[in-house]
Amino acid sequence: MPLDLTASSPDITRAICDIPSVSDDERTLADAVEAAIAPLAHLELHRDGDTLVARTNLGRAQRVVIAGHIDTVPINANVPTRDIEIDGEAFIWGRGTVDMKAGVAVQLKLAAELTNPAVDITWIWYDHEEVAAELSGLTRLAATRPDLFAGDFAILGEPTAGVVEGGCNGTLRAMVRTHGVRSHSARAWIGENAIHAAAPILARLAEYRPRTIAVDGLEYREGLNAVAITGGVAGNVIPDLCEVEVNFRFAPSRSEDDAVAHVRALFSGFEVEITDLSGGARPGLDAPLAQDFVRAVGGTPKPKYGWTDVARFSKLGVPAVNYGPGDPLLAHHDEERVAVSQIEEVERGLRAWLTTL
Prior knowledge:
The protein is of the alpha+beta class.
Protein backbone atom coordinates (compact mmCIF):
# COMPACT_ATOMS: atom_id res chain seq x y z
CA MET A 1 0.00 0.00 0.00
CA PRO A 2 1.37 3.46 -0.88
CA LEU A 3 1.75 5.99 1.93
CA ASP A 4 -1.06 8.52 2.07
CA LEU A 5 0.38 11.77 3.41
CA THR A 6 -3.06 13.39 3.46
CA ALA A 7 -3.94 11.03 6.31
CA SER A 8 -3.57 12.09 9.95
CA SER A 9 -0.15 11.82 11.56
CA PRO A 10 -1.38 8.98 13.86
CA ASP A 11 -2.61 7.09 10.78
CA ILE A 12 0.73 7.67 9.04
CA THR A 13 2.41 6.36 12.20
CA ARG A 14 0.38 3.16 11.97
CA ALA A 15 1.17 2.77 8.28
CA ILE A 16 4.94 3.16 8.54
CA CYS A 17 5.19 1.06 11.71
CA ASP A 18 3.44 -1.75 9.85
CA ILE A 19 6.26 -1.70 7.28
CA PRO A 20 9.09 -3.56 9.05
CA SER A 21 12.40 -1.68 8.82
CA VAL A 22 14.83 -3.28 11.24
CA SER A 23 18.35 -1.90 10.74
CA ASP A 24 19.83 -3.26 7.49
CA ASP A 25 16.33 -3.89 6.10
CA GLU A 26 15.04 -0.35 5.50
CA ARG A 27 14.67 -0.50 1.71
CA THR A 28 10.90 -1.17 1.59
CA LEU A 29 10.10 1.77 3.86
CA ALA A 30 12.62 4.04 2.12
CA ASP A 31 10.99 3.19 -1.21
CA ALA A 32 7.54 4.01 0.21
CA VAL A 33 8.75 7.36 1.57
CA GLU A 34 10.39 8.21 -1.75
CA ALA A 35 7.23 7.35 -3.68
CA ALA A 36 5.17 9.60 -1.39
CA ILE A 37 7.57 12.57 -1.46
CA ALA A 38 8.71 12.48 -5.11
CA PRO A 39 5.48 13.98 -6.58
CA LEU A 40 5.62 17.02 -4.26
CA ALA A 41 6.66 19.92 -6.48
CA HIS A 42 7.76 22.19 -3.62
CA LEU A 43 10.47 19.74 -2.50
CA GLU A 44 13.80 18.90 -4.13
CA LEU A 45 14.45 15.20 -3.43
CA HIS A 46 17.84 13.50 -3.07
CA ARG A 47 18.37 9.81 -2.25
CA ASP A 48 21.57 8.18 -0.99
CA GLY A 49 21.10 4.47 -0.33
CA ASP A 50 18.12 4.32 2.01
CA THR A 51 18.53 7.90 3.20
CA LEU A 52 16.25 10.56 1.71
CA VAL A 53 16.63 14.33 1.81
CA ALA A 54 13.81 16.67 0.75
CA ARG A 55 14.45 20.44 0.67
CA THR A 56 12.49 23.60 0.08
CA ASN A 57 14.33 26.30 -1.86
CA LEU A 58 12.34 29.45 -1.22
CA GLY A 59 15.24 31.83 -0.65
CA ARG A 60 14.39 32.29 3.02
CA ALA A 61 16.93 33.99 5.28
CA GLN A 62 17.21 30.92 7.52
CA ARG A 63 17.16 27.14 7.07
CA VAL A 64 16.04 24.52 9.60
CA VAL A 65 17.03 20.86 9.29
CA ILE A 66 14.51 18.34 10.66
CA ALA A 67 15.63 14.71 10.70
CA GLY A 68 14.50 11.27 11.80
CA HIS A 69 15.69 7.70 11.36
CA ILE A 70 13.49 5.10 9.71
CA ASP A 71 15.09 1.95 11.16
CA THR A 72 14.11 0.13 14.35
CA VAL A 73 15.61 -2.42 16.69
CA PRO A 74 14.52 -6.03 16.04
CA ILE A 75 10.84 -6.92 16.12
CA ASN A 76 9.63 -9.20 18.93
CA ALA A 77 6.04 -10.11 18.10
CA ASN A 78 5.08 -6.40 18.19
CA VAL A 79 4.26 -5.75 14.53
CA PRO A 80 1.66 -5.03 13.20
CA THR A 81 0.55 -2.16 15.40
CA ARG A 82 -2.65 -2.15 17.36
CA ASP A 83 -4.70 0.50 19.13
CA ILE A 84 -4.93 0.21 22.91
CA GLU A 85 -6.33 2.32 25.73
CA ILE A 86 -4.68 2.91 29.11
CA ASP A 87 -6.52 4.87 31.79
CA GLY A 88 -8.79 6.33 29.16
CA GLU A 89 -5.94 7.50 26.88
CA ALA A 90 -5.47 6.22 23.33
CA PHE A 91 -2.13 4.68 22.36
CA ILE A 92 -0.64 3.09 19.25
CA TRP A 93 1.27 -0.04 20.34
CA GLY A 94 4.06 -1.70 18.39
CA ARG A 95 7.71 -1.68 17.41
CA GLY A 96 8.93 1.71 16.24
CA THR A 97 5.97 3.69 17.57
CA VAL A 98 8.24 5.47 20.05
CA ASP A 99 11.67 5.13 18.47
CA MET A 100 10.95 6.88 16.25
CA LYS A 101 8.33 6.38 13.58
CA ALA A 102 5.75 8.62 15.26
CA GLY A 103 8.26 11.45 14.89
CA VAL A 104 8.91 10.46 11.28
CA ALA A 105 5.17 10.42 10.60
CA VAL A 106 4.83 13.99 11.85
CA GLN A 107 7.76 15.01 9.66
CA LEU A 108 6.26 13.37 6.57
CA LYS A 109 2.87 15.00 7.18
CA LEU A 110 4.41 18.46 7.56
CA ALA A 111 6.85 17.99 4.66
CA ALA A 112 3.87 17.33 2.37
CA GLU A 113 1.71 20.18 3.64
CA LEU A 114 4.09 23.06 4.41
CA THR A 115 4.53 24.45 0.92
CA ASN A 116 5.22 27.99 2.10
CA PRO A 117 7.00 27.79 5.49
CA ALA A 118 8.53 30.81 7.20
CA VAL A 119 12.02 29.26 6.86
CA ASP A 120 13.54 26.95 4.30
CA ILE A 121 13.40 23.37 5.57
CA THR A 122 15.61 20.36 4.92
CA TRP A 123 13.85 17.10 5.82
CA ILE A 124 16.11 14.07 6.31
CA TRP A 125 14.94 10.47 6.79
CA TYR A 126 17.89 8.14 7.25
CA ASP A 127 18.83 4.51 7.74
CA HIS A 128 21.00 2.55 10.18
CA GLU A 129 20.71 4.73 13.28
CA GLU A 130 20.21 1.83 15.69
CA VAL A 131 23.56 0.21 14.89
CA ALA A 132 27.24 1.22 14.85
CA ALA A 133 27.82 4.90 14.02
CA GLU A 134 29.92 4.13 10.94
CA LEU A 135 26.91 2.42 9.31
CA SER A 136 24.57 5.38 9.77
CA GLY A 137 23.02 6.99 6.72
CA LEU A 138 24.03 10.34 8.18
CA THR A 139 27.68 9.24 8.31
CA ARG A 140 27.48 8.29 4.65
CA LEU A 141 25.65 11.47 3.69
CA ALA A 142 28.13 13.68 5.53
CA ALA A 143 30.90 12.16 3.43
CA THR A 144 29.12 12.39 0.07
CA ARG A 145 26.91 15.49 0.44
CA PRO A 146 27.95 17.60 3.46
CA ASP A 147 26.17 20.57 1.88
CA LEU A 148 22.84 18.92 2.70
CA PHE A 149 23.54 19.39 6.42
CA ALA A 150 23.72 23.18 6.10
CA GLY A 151 21.32 25.00 8.39
CA ASP A 152 20.90 27.52 11.17
CA PHE A 153 19.21 25.07 13.54
CA ALA A 154 18.37 21.35 13.57
CA ILE A 155 15.66 19.27 15.22
CA LEU A 156 15.90 15.49 15.70
CA GLY A 157 12.52 13.81 16.10
CA GLU A 158 13.78 11.43 18.80
CA PRO A 159 11.20 10.56 21.49
CA THR A 160 11.09 13.22 24.22
CA ALA A 161 7.41 12.98 25.30
CA GLY A 162 6.86 16.26 23.46
CA VAL A 163 9.39 18.22 25.53
CA VAL A 164 12.52 19.84 24.09
CA GLU A 165 15.66 17.94 25.14
CA GLY A 166 18.91 19.78 24.53
CA GLY A 167 22.15 18.20 23.39
CA CYS A 168 23.08 14.66 24.39
CA ASN A 169 25.62 12.64 26.32
CA GLY A 170 28.54 11.11 24.50
CA THR A 171 29.02 7.35 24.40
CA LEU A 172 32.11 5.17 24.51
CA ARG A 173 32.40 1.40 24.39
CA ALA A 174 35.56 -0.38 25.44
CA MET A 175 36.70 -3.98 25.74
CA VAL A 176 38.70 -4.58 28.92
CA ARG A 177 40.62 -7.86 28.71
CA THR A 178 42.43 -10.26 31.00
CA HIS A 179 44.67 -13.08 29.84
CA GLY A 180 45.56 -16.39 31.45
CA VAL A 181 46.89 -19.84 30.63
CA ARG A 182 44.72 -22.77 29.61
CA SER A 183 44.90 -26.03 31.50
CA HIS A 184 42.67 -28.94 32.46
CA SER A 185 40.26 -27.85 35.18
CA ALA A 186 41.24 -30.91 37.20
CA ARG A 187 44.74 -29.43 37.37
CA ALA A 188 43.84 -25.78 37.69
CA TRP A 189 47.14 -24.93 39.37
CA ILE A 190 48.91 -25.54 36.07
CA GLY A 191 46.96 -22.71 34.38
CA GLU A 192 45.90 -19.14 35.11
CA ASN A 193 42.19 -18.34 35.15
CA ALA A 194 41.45 -15.25 33.06
CA ILE A 195 37.86 -15.01 34.36
CA HIS A 196 39.07 -14.88 37.96
CA ALA A 197 41.54 -12.19 36.93
CA ALA A 198 38.63 -10.03 35.78
CA ALA A 199 37.27 -9.66 39.33
CA PRO A 200 39.06 -6.30 39.90
CA ILE A 201 37.46 -4.93 36.73
CA LEU A 202 33.99 -5.70 38.06
CA ALA A 203 34.93 -4.37 41.50
CA ARG A 204 36.02 -1.04 40.03
CA LEU A 205 32.77 -0.80 38.09
CA ALA A 206 30.69 -1.64 41.17
CA GLU A 207 32.50 1.00 43.22
CA TYR A 208 32.36 3.70 40.54
CA ARG A 209 30.20 6.70 41.35
CA PRO A 210 29.10 8.55 38.19
CA ARG A 211 28.86 12.31 38.18
CA THR A 212 26.05 14.70 37.32
CA ILE A 213 27.53 17.63 35.39
CA ALA A 214 25.84 20.96 34.63
CA VAL A 215 26.35 22.09 31.04
CA ASP A 216 24.83 25.39 29.89
CA GLY A 217 22.06 25.16 32.46
CA LEU A 218 21.13 21.48 31.97
CA GLU A 219 22.35 18.63 34.19
CA TYR A 220 23.69 15.53 32.46
CA ARG A 221 23.98 12.25 34.37
CA GLU A 222 26.96 10.12 33.43
CA GLY A 223 27.12 6.34 33.64
CA LEU A 224 29.79 3.63 33.46
CA ASN A 225 28.62 0.03 33.28
CA ALA A 226 29.58 -3.45 32.20
CA VAL A 227 27.21 -4.43 29.40
CA ALA A 228 28.64 -7.84 28.48
CA ILE A 229 31.21 -10.35 29.68
CA THR A 230 32.61 -13.27 27.72
CA GLY A 231 35.10 -15.97 28.56
CA GLY A 232 35.48 -19.71 28.75
CA VAL A 233 36.47 -22.53 26.45
CA ALA A 234 34.78 -25.65 27.76
CA GLY A 235 33.42 -27.06 30.99
CA ASN A 236 36.71 -28.75 31.80
CA VAL A 237 39.18 -26.07 30.64
CA ILE A 238 40.67 -23.16 32.60
CA PRO A 239 39.98 -20.10 30.40
CA ASP A 240 42.87 -18.07 29.00
CA LEU A 241 40.82 -15.00 27.97
CA CYS A 242 38.06 -12.90 29.51
CA GLU A 243 36.55 -9.76 27.97
CA VAL A 244 34.38 -7.26 29.80
CA GLU A 245 32.58 -4.81 27.52
CA VAL A 246 32.12 -1.44 29.20
CA ASN A 247 29.86 1.46 28.15
CA PHE A 248 30.67 4.99 29.34
CA ARG A 249 27.98 7.65 28.89
CA PHE A 250 29.70 10.99 29.38
CA ALA A 251 28.54 14.58 29.69
CA PRO A 252 28.89 16.81 26.60
CA SER A 253 31.41 18.98 28.45
CA ARG A 254 33.93 16.15 28.09
CA SER A 255 35.81 15.77 24.83
CA GLU A 256 36.20 12.35 23.25
CA ASP A 257 39.88 12.36 24.26
CA ASP A 258 38.90 13.16 27.86
CA ALA A 259 36.45 10.26 27.90
CA VAL A 260 39.05 7.84 26.55
CA ALA A 261 41.63 9.01 29.10
CA HIS A 262 39.12 8.61 31.92
CA VAL A 263 38.32 5.00 31.00
CA ARG A 264 41.96 4.05 30.46
CA ALA A 265 42.90 5.56 33.83
CA LEU A 266 40.10 3.71 35.61
CA PHE A 267 41.24 0.38 34.17
CA SER A 268 44.93 1.03 34.50
CA GLY A 269 46.87 -2.23 34.47
CA PHE A 270 44.45 -3.94 32.07
CA GLU A 271 44.35 -4.20 28.29
CA VAL A 272 41.76 -1.67 27.07
CA GLU A 273 40.53 -1.44 23.48
CA ILE A 274 38.18 1.39 22.52
CA THR A 275 35.63 -0.14 20.15
CA ASP A 276 33.14 2.71 19.65
CA LEU A 277 33.26 6.43 20.40
CA SER A 278 30.86 9.28 19.69
CA GLY A 279 31.12 12.67 21.35
CA GLY A 280 28.13 14.39 22.90
CA ALA A 281 26.51 17.70 22.03
CA ARG A 282 26.07 20.77 24.19
CA PRO A 283 22.43 21.84 24.63
CA GLY A 284 22.39 24.31 21.72
CA LEU A 285 19.67 26.33 23.43
CA ASP A 286 21.52 29.64 23.24
CA ALA A 287 20.91 29.96 19.47
CA PRO A 288 18.16 32.51 18.68
CA LEU A 289 16.20 30.00 16.61
CA ALA A 290 16.39 27.48 19.45
CA GLN A 291 15.04 30.05 21.90
CA ASP A 292 12.20 30.90 19.52
CA PHE A 293 11.44 27.20 19.17
CA VAL A 294 11.32 26.58 22.92
CA ARG A 295 8.99 29.54 23.41
CA ALA A 296 6.73 28.30 20.62
CA VAL A 297 6.33 24.70 21.82
CA GLY A 298 6.44 25.47 25.54
CA GLY A 299 7.69 23.44 28.47
CA THR A 300 11.01 23.44 30.29
CA PRO A 301 13.92 21.98 28.29
CA LYS A 302 15.59 18.86 29.67
CA PRO A 303 18.93 17.16 28.96
CA LYS A 304 19.12 14.14 26.63
CA TYR A 305 20.90 11.32 28.45
CA GLY A 306 21.20 8.95 25.50
CA TRP A 307 23.37 9.68 22.46
CA THR A 308 21.49 11.00 19.45
CA ASP A 309 22.41 12.45 16.09
CA VAL A 310 22.18 15.99 17.45
CA ALA A 311 25.88 15.38 18.09
CA ARG A 312 26.53 15.13 14.34
CA PHE A 313 24.95 18.53 13.72
CA SER A 314 26.68 20.08 16.72
CA LYS A 315 30.03 18.88 15.35
CA LEU A 316 29.22 20.69 12.09
CA GLY A 317 28.43 23.89 13.97
CA VAL A 318 24.64 23.56 13.69
CA PRO A 319 22.86 23.89 17.07
CA ALA A 320 20.41 21.03 17.49
CA VAL A 321 17.77 19.73 19.90
CA ASN A 322 15.63 16.61 20.28
CA TYR A 323 11.85 16.95 20.05
CA GLY A 324 9.37 14.21 19.29
CA PRO A 325 6.41 12.17 20.53
CA GLY A 326 6.84 9.09 22.71
CA ASP A 327 8.15 8.26 26.16
CA PRO A 328 11.89 7.60 25.78
CA LEU A 329 11.68 5.03 28.59
CA LEU A 330 9.63 2.86 26.22
CA ALA A 331 12.14 3.04 23.34
CA HIS A 332 13.22 -0.52 22.38
CA HIS A 333 10.74 -1.91 24.95
CA ASP A 334 8.60 -4.85 23.89
CA GLU A 335 5.56 -2.85 25.09
CA GLU A 336 6.58 0.16 23.00
CA ARG A 337 3.59 2.48 22.58
CA VAL A 338 2.95 6.15 21.86
CA ALA A 339 0.08 8.34 22.98
CA VAL A 340 -2.00 9.59 20.06
CA SER A 341 -2.32 12.95 21.83
CA GLN A 342 1.48 13.36 21.87
CA ILE A 343 1.74 12.77 18.12
CA GLU A 344 -0.90 15.42 17.53
CA GLU A 345 0.68 17.83 20.02
CA VAL A 346 4.12 17.60 18.39
CA GLU A 347 2.58 18.12 14.96
CA ARG A 348 0.76 21.24 16.20
CA GLY A 349 3.90 22.62 17.85
CA LEU A 350 6.14 22.15 14.82
CA ARG A 351 3.49 23.39 12.39
CA ALA A 352 2.84 26.56 14.37
CA TRP A 353 6.53 27.37 14.74
CA LEU A 354 7.48 26.66 11.13
CA THR A 355 4.67 28.82 9.75
CA THR A 356 4.91 31.83 12.06
CA LEU A 357 8.65 32.41 12.61
